[in-house]
């Protein structure tokens, strides 16, 4: 009985964490829509640091391979992975071709999308649209 209770607590904590991150993501998008860009980026960076233990330097410079290994070691749920992808996407958007950190972050978003699709068998129209935007930008240095 004790094991079941502990699993319920873990599940509740995970659901709470996902819900909280979803609210943060909604707040970030709202800030961007209100043209409070710097505030949105600060919230993204704070969230990446506090909830994912990821910092600017790592995100702007780590290789795709190392990031994939890092994610494997962290063993995030598919929902937390998806929120991480959304945060990284928002941190890079609008895309600027002269910013190598943004280009690296876009590659990391694609790593997460690939993990979601291949290991968790999850696809969404939103992520497919973002993948298409990223691919167009990376391949043509342009996007709509």
Describe, in short, the structure shown.
The chain has helices at residues 2-33, 37-52, 56-61, 64-74, 78-92, 100-118, 125-140. With 144 residues, the protein is mainly alpha-helical.
Characterization of the model:
With 144 residues, the chain is mainly α. The chain is built from seven helices and no strands. Helix 1 (2-33) packs antiparallel against helix 2 (37-52), helix 5 (78-92) runs antiparallel to helix 6 and helix 6 runs antiparallel to helix 7. The N and C termini lie far apart (55 Å). The relative contact order is 0.10.
What separation lies between the terminal Cα atoms? Answer: 55 Å
Q: Bin the strand percentage.
A: under 5%
- Low-confidence blocks of residues: none
- How big is the Rg? 16 Å
Number of helices: 7
Largest sheet: none
Order of helices and strands: HHHHHHH
The oligomerization state is single chain
Number of strands: 0
Helicity range: over 70%
The overall pLDDT, averaged over residues, is: 91
Query: What structural class should be given to the helix and strand makeup?
Result: mainly alpha
Note the overall shape.
globular
Provide key terms for this protein.
144 residues, single chain, mainly alpha
What's the topology here?
Layout: H1 2-33, H2 37-52, H3 56-61, H4 64-74, H5 78-92, H6 100-118, H7 125-140
Helix pairs in contact: 1-2, 1-5, 2-5, 4-6, 5-6, 6-7
């Amino acid at each position: 009985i004790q094991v079941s209770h502990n699993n319920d607590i873990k599940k509740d904590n995970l659901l709470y964490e996902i819900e909280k991150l979803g609210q943060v993501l909604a707040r970030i998008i709202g800030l961007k829509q209100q043209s409070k860009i710097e505030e949105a980026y600060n919230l993204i960076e704070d969230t990446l640091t506090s909830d994912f233990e990821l910092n600017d330097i790592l995100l702007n410079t780590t290789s795709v391979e190392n990031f994939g290994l890092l994610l494997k070691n962290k063993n995030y749920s598919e929902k937390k992975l998806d929120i991480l992808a959304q945060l990284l996407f928002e941190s890079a958007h609008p895309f600027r071709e002269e910013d190598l950190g943004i280009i690296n972050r876009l590659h990391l978003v694609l790593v997460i999308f690939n993990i979601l699709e291949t290991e968790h068998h999850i696809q969404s129209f939103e992520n497919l649209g973002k993948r298409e935007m990223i691919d167009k930008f990376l391949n043509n240095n342009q996007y709509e």
